[in-house]
Design a protein that fits this description.
The protein is built from three helices and eight strands. With about 220 residues, it is of the alpha+beta class. Among the domains are: about 110 residues, PH-domain like, CATH 2.30.29; about 35 residues. Strands 1, 2, 3, 4, 5, 6, 7 and 8 form an eight-stranded antiparallel β-sheet that branches. A hairpin with a 4-residue loop joins β7 and β8. The chain is rod-shaped and about 155 Å long. GO terms for molecular function: actin binding; profilin binding; SH3 domain binding. Keywords: Actin-binding, Cell projection, Cytoplasm, Cytoskeleton, Phosphoprotein, SH3-binding. InterPro entries: PH-like_dom_sf, VASP_sf, VASP_tetra, WH1/EVH1_dom.
Amino acid sequence: MFISDDEQSICQARATVMMYDDGSKRWLPAGSGAQAVSRVHIFQNPSNNSFRVVGRKQQADQQVVINCPLVRGIKYNQATPTFHQWRDARQVWGLNFGSKEDAAQFANGMMHALDMLSGDAGACPPPPRPPQNGPSAEEIEQKRRVNSATKSQDKSPVSPATAAPLSRTRPGSSTGDSTDMEKFKQDILEEMRKELQKVKDEIISALIEEVQKISTG
């Protein structure tokens, strides 16, 4: 299958491509071999305002299972939230999407293409293309819920054994200790003053005795 340089993918989704068999009145997987999920694109060629749906199996051979030009007047039917279908000139096509998000994304792209083909000047721009790899919206929501539950467990009440013990200091005890220490300092200073005065008196007495001895001699 050839993709021209002028074509660009405006939408893509993962889906199983189906074809309706009028003879057996049932849906059959498109392509040959075992049924497999495909990467389905809507390609636009801005130079001639044409669109087509192209899907390849996500297998080693990347078999093309749908290459359907979109034309004016096609009716796109969203039969269920995850199964959509439409009819071209030869075949009824069905897409069985893996998620509602993929289905809604592809439906928006298809509506844009059909509006452009019908000449609707007010057609909305194509939806942004989601990354080919990465978690789906459902996986992101599930991960968010798990993280929320983990955080709730981390916020469990603190047990009495791990709680910080309360201080046993009685109210006002700090002030009392300070007063006692100040009194103790004052007592020491008073004793030192007494000792110094005693030494001073002894020195003076000794000097007086020496002076008297010299005078009498």
